[in-house]
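Researcher: Please predict.
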Amino acid sequence: MKYKSSHAFLKYSTKFCDKMVEEILKRKQATIEKLKERRSIKDAILAAKAAGKRPVITEVKRRGLKTERNDVVIEAAEAASQMKEGGACALSVLTDEAFSGSLDDLRTVKVHVDLPILRKDFIFDSFQVYEAYACGANAILLIARYLTVERLKELAKKASSLGIESLIEIDRESKDKILDADLTDISSSSLIGINNRDLDTFEVTLATFEAIAPEVKPKIPDDVPLVALSGINNTEDARRMFDAGADALLVGTSVMNAEDIAQKVKELVDREQTKINY
């Protein structure tokens, strides 16, 4: 009897362990399938325009450049879900540790929200492109000011080979080297972003986009969207950027600091909202 009891216990334990492992494998498989999903920010911008909406990429960020240690207290998945509810066409996730970001935030957002996801970070090595891919990113940020044209194109090509788009950020200092470069071989997977923030002083002015966009727009391929970055706080700011030639906006701080994230995004996305206000 003692042997039979022991045998029954072992049999039960084996079944329990098998079931537990099966549940773990199912959960992991579901997560991996979510991370592997490929989506396009460029397509999302076109879809938003076709729906009569303003294409707005909203950013999950815990801290901005000038907020010191005052982190935004909200779960990444919750913030992302509210952004989707408000009508964002895509999401950006700030993953750099200096801004309290992490790759965990990127993975979490990708698993919980079915929108294209941009990894926003200081990317300079191919390993970081593979990191972004493994964590589910559909696009990466490449800051032209900190990269040679050759290195930028190398990273963009590597990203494209993995099904990842590249948002190439330019400013007053870096615009000429990008405009003078031949981007034909990476244009199908690229977007251009003009940063309204002066990276020397961190000051922000929308006049930067308004001054640079008329020069940039005619010189980039037709299939490359132009995105306005930084300093967009309300519907008037959004209107100014689109009037100046923006195809989309990337908005972070004003959305993350809003009491109602979904409503704030809706105000930026909804064209009728802008008309009502003015």
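Model: The radius of gyration is 22 Å.
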